Amino acid sequence: VCMSVCLCLYQSSAGLNSSLPNRSSRSLTPRMTAGPYPLITVSDTPDQLTVNAYEPGAGIAAHIDTPSAFGPVLALVSLAAPIVMEFACPDSGRLVEVWLPARSLTLLAGPARYTWTHAIAHRKVDVVQGVRILRSPRVSLTFRRVTSE
Q1: Which of 1, 5, 9, 25 makes a 20 to 30 Å CA pair with 116?
Q2: Are 32 and 146 in contact (CB under 8 A)?
Q3: How far from 79 is each of 1, 53, 100, 130, CA to CA, in Å?
Q4: H or E element: which one contains 61?
């Protein structure tokens, strides 16, 4: 079940290098491939927006957004500061850390939406490819479609 992940990461052109000196965005931007899952359709247009502000040290426990309450695509926008998001497959125990630059959009669909959990660790420093990055205040926008069931 956790073999295929549908996770797409989009970033503004000014995002990554500004927070990681001497590193190219190509070396840190995760290589993700969208599976055979349609990402956005007219029926998936979000009708709910959740805005959260996170101070350094704050995080969110591993979870899957309630499948019965929300549609098949989640859109996550990271603003103000970058963050490492952890994705875990409960079946295999596999853990993948994904660097979310400031001003990035992440779409979760397929197994990334329904099987893998996502979380942000409670810490004040992230380490990406050996580079220690102090966390700054961050704003997260989560767009969802509420199901009618």
Answers
A1: 25
A2: no
A3: 31, 10, 10, 23
A4: strand 60-63
